[in-house]
Automatic annotation (TrEMBL):
<protein>
    <submittedName>
        <fullName>Helix-turn-helix domain-containing protein</fullName>
    </submittedName>
</protein>
<dbReference type="InterPro" id="IPR018060">
    <property type="entry name" value="HTH_AraC"/>
</dbReference>
<keyword id="KW-0805">Transcription regulation</keyword>
<keyword id="KW-0804">Transcription</keyword>
<feature type="domain" description="HTH araC/xylS-type">
    <location>
        <begin position="211"/>
        <end position="311"/>
    </location>
</feature>
<dbReference type="InterPro" id="IPR050204">
    <property type="entry name" value="AraC_XylS_family_regulators"/>
</dbReference>
<keyword id="KW-0238">DNA-binding</keyword>
<dbReference type="Pfam" id="PF12833">
    <property type="entry name" value="HTH_18"/>
</dbReference>
Length: 326
């Protein structure tokens, strides 16, 4: 949805779904109160700009987890701690949170379905009980920046193409990416049972890491698992994965995945049927950022996805295809 500007803080606060709370203005309110929200399947993303300094207290609805990220230029304290670029506030269902801002704040929020979070946490070997405590999660700025970038990119993509997240596969792909990015910031210990199973285990041979990695990548292309689960599915660290794929293919697992996905999309475009669209075909492979995908596709195959589709449909219809000048 487009950004909405509110005349006062009450209307602004009431427009935030999924949370019951109270906001109190503590400073002069000269700036606009602006809010953008986007629902992507069972994930909600939010971008807010306060019009004044405030105090706030509130709690998420049942069966929802939440993340609050402070953007540059803000001066925000939640749960008694300053929120900077090295962390975020993790909000558990039905647990009240308190905080305040010293200046009009800018922030991002992510609203996550409980079932999705728990499923991903189990796959990552995290302690799920710790998720039910509202707390300040500190991580490295790069990991937090990944969450910010994904959230902001979702707004950009939706603005460019309002139908970008219409396909369930695109919704699932974004949800898996943002949930994994959020949980990877949490410095939680591995579950004791999982740690015990891993203790003393000999390192995997390089060929086995690659074999398992390729198998996981192919399953992710079929929509069976999220690509981001690869370290847990393979049973190797990201560093070991990078080294094994680098030795085998000269690229990291993510690059290998991107190349495989582009080739899968190319095959699907070339075998398209009337009524197929680039958006629909790409959504089958979990692509929601069509602009970036098209740029990568063009760079690799020297043709845009839309042109590839047009050629395929024209060939099926028996329409002569004019060779494109290079």
């Amino acid at each position: 949805m487009p950004s909405l500007t509110f005349p006062d803080f009450e209307a602004y606060s009431n427009a935030v779904n999924g949370i019951d709370g109270e906001m109190r203005v503590t400073g002069r309110s000269d700036a606009a109160w602006v809010l953008s929200t986007l629902e992507i399947g069972d994930i909600g993303v939010l971008h807010g700009m306060d019009g004044a300094s405030v105090t706030y207290r509130g709690a998420l609805h049942a069966a929802r987890f939440g993340v609050y990220l402070s953007l540059p230029g803000s001066d925000t304290e939640l749960e008694g701690e300053q929120v900077g670029d090295d962390g975020y506030i993790w909000m558990a269902p039905r647990q009240e949170m308190q905080g305040f801002t010293r200046v009009p704040a800018r922030f991002l929020g992510v609203d996550l379905a409980e079932a999705r979070v728990l499923g991903q946490a189990v796959r990552m070997g995290l302690d799920t009980q710790a998720l039910y405590r509202t707390t300040h999660v500190r991580s490295n700025p790069q990991a937090v920046a990944e969450v910010v970038a994904l959230t902001q990119r979702a707004f950009d993509v939706h603005a460019e193409n309002p139908e970008a997240f219409a396909e369930p596969a695109a919704q699932q792909a974004f949800a898996a990416q943002i949930t994994t990015a959020v949980l990877q910031c949490r410095p939680l210990p591995v579950c004791p049972s999982l740690a015990a199973s891993r203790r003393g285990r000999p390192p995997l041979p390089r060929k086995e890491i690659v074999r398992r990695g390729i198998d996981h990548i192919q399953r992710s292309l079929r929509g069976e698992v999220p690509f981001s689960d690869i370290p847990f599915a393979v049973g190797a660290s990201q560093r070991s994965l990078n080294r094994a794929f680098g030795d085998a293919f000269g690229m990291a697992p993510r690059q290998f995945y991107v190349v495989e996905r582009l080739h899968a999309i190319r095959s699907a475009l070339r075998s398209a049927r009337p009524g197929d669209t680039v958006t629909g075909i790409c959504a089958r492979f979990g692509v929601w950022d069509l602009g970036r995908m098209a740029a990568l596709y063009s760079r690799l195959f020297n043709i845009l996805p839309a042109q590839e589709l047009s050629r395929a449909l024209a060939a099926q219809a028996g329409v002569p295809v004019v060779a494109r000048r290079r």
